[in-house]
Input
Amino acid sequence: MSTPPLAPRSTFGGVIAVWIVAAVAGVSIGLFVPSEWRAAWLPLALGGCLILAFAVQLGYGRPHRFIQRVAASVVGALLILGVISLGFGLAAVVPG
Output
């Protein structure tokens, strides 16, 4: 039987890291992708965040609440990319 670690690493940093990557990916899509292709690139960014969330949480090596941590990472990335895409939509509607 293995002994539990005395001070396990916090896994919340991995969730936040995926959110930051989602924000950077969304802003990068807004800056570098033409407006007619943004809607196609945002789901690809979300898929990349899903793969990153799995990789980060598997890297921690802690099975306890694994699904909840991955779900928190992906739902947060979805919300961040959704807000960014809402900004894209509003920017397309507003004349400027």
Remarks:
- The mean pLDDT is 91.
- Residues 12-93 form one domain.
